[in-house]
Every structure is written in structure tokens, then in C-alpha cells.
Amino acid sequence: MAFEIPLATQNVKPHQVTALHLLASLAFIGMASITMLLNNMVIELPDALPAAVQQEQIDVFDAVDLGCTIVLLLGSFIFVSTLFRNRWVTKVPNNNIFRLVETYLSLAIAAYLFYRGWNVPSAVFAVLTTALAFAKYAERGKLKHKHVDFTDNGIKLPLGLRNNSLKWAEVTSVLLRHGTLTINTINNKLYQWMTAPNNVDATDFEAYCNTLIEAAKKDRKNYDW
Length: 225
Fold this sequence. Notes:
It is a single chain. By secondary structure, this protein is α+β, with helices and mostly antiparallel strands. The protein is built from six helices and seven strands, in the order βαααααββββββα. It has helices at residues 14-39, 51-84, 86-89, 92-115, 119-139, 202-215, and strands at 3-9, 146-151, 154-156, 165-166, 171-177, 180-185, 190-195. Helix 1 (14-39) runs antiparallel to helix 5. It is elongated.
């Protein structure tokens, strides 16, 4: 009996996905809050502009406030969801939607800041947009198609790791939960990847791994150091 677990990508870890969601949401919240604060500052001028001009400026200010309010609400929703519903957010379909919203929102902000002549913050959001777009590409597993093989003889890890195989005597637990594969070893080393869509039954897979781990405990002393 054997199992092959396809990986979304070797390079993206679940905590990295979560961290980028939080970073993007904080950037949106901070930008919206500061912009709204500056937009609503009242400065008395010695020579008032004509009423028509003032009305045009008020309309612009109102439009900016509306845009910032939308950005603030979206940023807050992403932040709260990532903190309290992280497993739901990081599921593949939901994560794709969140990342798509973040990417286009960041791009819109960068374009608007550039239009207003605020080049430094525009560059910051341009970099964020690039990072989000790359993350979406990487999280969907388009960088490399890799997998982890589980057989009676041990575990074969993806190429690129210094030690790309594990004996069952080296392993303490294997979990396949919420789109994440986790392997713990006796020397406290943790291997973790996001998985690609698959038809592997998690209950049967974990039972298979637990059986082999228990059977190999008698050989564990050879791997204790």
C-alpha cells in the first residue's frame, strides 16, 4: 500500500500565506486611515476660493472618503477573518478569492497614489501588488509540481531538501488536515506543505501512517541523538 500526496508548492508554507494576508490588510487599514485623516483636516485660508471651486473640492474630498471607507472595511474584514477564521481563509478556493481581491485593491491604490503624485507610497503599494500577484501564482502550485510519497519502506520527500527521505522510525506523527501536510520527526524537525487538490482520504492515510510509525518504534533507538 502507498500514498502520493501532491503539493501545491514546496516553497510556500501555511504561516507565510497567513502572514501575507495580515500584511496586506494592515497596509490597507493604515493607508485608508491616514488618508481619511489628512482628507478631513480643516485649514483656514485668508482668501476663500469661489463657491463653485469649493464645491468641486468638497465633491473630491467626499469621493476620497468613500473610497477610503471601502478600503478600510475590506482591510478590516481580511484582518479579522485571517485572525479568527484562518483555516477557512487559507482553504484553496477561499484563499484564491482573498488574494485576488488584495491584488486588485493594492493595484488600484498604487495607481491612485501615482495619479496624485505621491510617488513613494505608490511605489510601496506597487511592490505589495507584485508580492501578492506572485504569491497567488505560487500558492496555486504553478511553480513546481512536487509530491511526497508514503510507502511501507518510508517517506520520500520532494527533491531539493538535503535529506529527501525518512524512515518510519524517524517519524513521530503525520497529519493531513485542512489542505496542509505535516510531518513531525523524533529530533523535533517539522516538515509542512500546502497540498494540491487530491482524492486522498485523510482518515485512511493517517491510520496507515500511524500503523507504520507504531511498528517502527522498536528501531527508534538507532535514530536518537
